[in-house]
């Protein structure tokens, strides 16, 4: 090898191009070669569903920088249509096949960066290889799906999987005028969310005409005589259900992705506990001169400190940049992630950061939870309700995570909460944040402020909260809990918590004698604010009283979810 540093990068989407570009900024002398088996580089994978729907007119809008542009801008040798098939970490060489000619050759390296990304999980089902069954991972996939939809009488679409890509695809194809069914194996859409938040997503899908089958699994694909897809066989969770076949003119399989580990294993690097490549905070593996970045590599959870794997373009860009800096003598380090994400589902923005309630409990925390329902700005200027479910640790008050769903303002709030978690904020700190206010953008006490106030009250014991799930569990276990509805008779007539007593807030002081002060008591209203006022009244009268988190709205959604799961 020459004295000139030679860096070989395998993969040229977010992480690979970021690593190569940053390495070039760190050294004009280094020789940098990027191998990519596809023909597109640095494309926006997250934008692919919007090309299917026509929101993005041409695929070129998602691939603004081709190999020639990148090579000219950075002085980097970018070879698309070239697949790296083997690695010899001892000799520090890679074997490369030119897919256009079939020629195979060997190239050497001083430093090797694996940015091999992920591949879609394709379950081994009968008929899964039928024409008209697609995954959606790269521009080639998107071109094929759109051509299929535009040149055939598709009619009905089946999307398998209700994660980010599945739901964006369902939205876009629905807006094209197609009938869409989404099949999801878990009990609700968006499996990364807690069930009591994901229920809002389920409702939104169904409100826009999407058939959502939860607790269901695909058992096979049926075909026409010419080998094209005809239907999808589905087994639902209902006991004794023999299953049914859904008509399908096209099937999109979006059940998840897995790291492309063939080259990593060939190089002899350690695969971490998450199933991705184990790396240090600069992207080094445990094999000298071999690095891994982006979706193929593990990251670190900012809350737990443990290795984690959440394949997102934002993380891929960061880890690529960090490794490119370190390759040329820099000291950047990757500080970890919260898995912060956001997706649009028709008229809702759905966002998450940090730990959910379930994951917080699994990680050994004692979670305190609030369901805060507030408008993004005053209703007199068109404010619309959003739900923020936030999780904090009871012992330390530390903010652990949040989920937010609503038509507007969700992105702002989840980013504020992600920033707070990143810097170790406690629930009580949220109220003191000096956030921007004008009635065109926010309420005087922002939903983030209210979230902190409610969490702090619950943690301190001044205003305990109980979730719908906890209330039902306690009652199921035989505990006698006194539940008091402090709403108006008009609201109660629409729906109410089962076995609750109705005493409107205005009458509560005078009628408190009708209640048993020796029983644990829960107050509730529609969303939580009036319930909190009732809680304060009874607390000062000596009751052991909690407020129902998120009020009757959250309770009813929880009950619907339970009924659907058990149906």
Automatic annotation (TrEMBL):
Residues in the signal sequence: none
Cofactors, names only: FAD
Keyword Flavoprotein: yes
Superkingdom of the source species: Bacteria
Domain Rhodanese, residue spans: 477-564
One Pfam family here: Pyr_redox_2
Organism listed in the record: Isoptericola halotolerans
Family: Belongs to the class-III pyridine nucleotide-disulfide oxidoreductase family.
Protein name: NADPH-dependent 2,4-dienoyl-CoA reductase/sulfur reductase-like enzyme/rhodanese-related sulfurtransferase
Entry annotated with the keyword Flavoprotein: yes
Keywords of the record: FAD, Flavoprotein, Oxidoreductase, Redox-active center
